[in-house]
Amino acid sequence: MFARSTTVQGHPQNIDAGIANIRDQVIPTLRDLDGFVGISFLADRQSGRCIATTAWETEEAMRTSEPKLRTLREQAAEVLGARPQVDEWEIAVLHRDHTSRSGACVRATWIRFDAAQADQAIQTYKMTALPAMEEFDGFCSASLLIDRDEGIAVSSVTYDSPEAMERARTQADTLRMASAEEAGVEILEVVEFELALAHLRVPEMV
Questions:
Q1: Angle at 203 between CA 58 and CA 71, to 5 degrees
Q2: What is the pLDDT of residue 57?
Q3: Quick one: which H or E segment has residue 162?
């Protein structure tokens, strides 16, 4: 399974218009494309940073979709008020305790790893981080996307509500540091988002 993320550092006042554009213009087009298995849209209403991520059955399906989606992506970014940054990923891990609900939110962590440590980082995530996160109150799901060539990965942990995410903050911080040390990776950034849209059919991958 593979994913393409589009990040836009937009204007906070444009986020609702951006969500409507994704829901009304982008998703209907995506549903007609071979290999499409879902989309999520994360929004930080304070900074204006938004990330739309589409998931695909194969790398070929993801690459084939690119020409058809380029115009839609530019239009969506224009609504939000900034140019998009596009990244492509391998979906290394996806675990869902239950489907997300209205009001869900996501804590995303970007990490850097040495190419030789990619498999170790994935194994640590599966065997150490994921079982611990499942015990967090309000835990909904978690995923790990990796770019082996660039040595970058992003972990996204979904919670039922901002309150649940806040309650787990200390535990999550401790787990993040311990897992990074065990896997030999560098934490680059941690950002919290509203899960504005989630239409995902990605199967369990652990």
A1: 45
A2: 95
A3: helix 162-167
Instruction: Report the SS3 class of residue 59.
Output: helix
Residue 152's H or E segment, with its range, is strand 152-159
What is the rounded distance in angstroms from the CA atom of residue 176 to the CA atom of residue 22?
A: 32
pTM reported for the whole predicted model: 0.91
Give the position of tokens 């850097």: 112
Torsion of CA 78, 100, 120, 152, to 10 degrees: 10
Neighbouring-strand partners of residue 189 = 110
At 90, which amino acid appears?
E
What's residue 84's pLDDT? 82
The secondary structure of 61-130 as a DSSP string is: HHHHHHHHHHHHHHHHHHHHTS-EEEEEEEEEEEEESS---TT-EEEEEEEE--GGGHHHHHHHIIIIIH
What is the C-alpha radius of gyration for the chain, rounded to an integer number of angstroms? 16
The pLDDT-based confidence of 51 (bands split at 50, 70, 90) is very high
| Mean pLDDT, rounded, of the chain | 91
CA separation for the pair 22, 194 (Å, rounded): 15
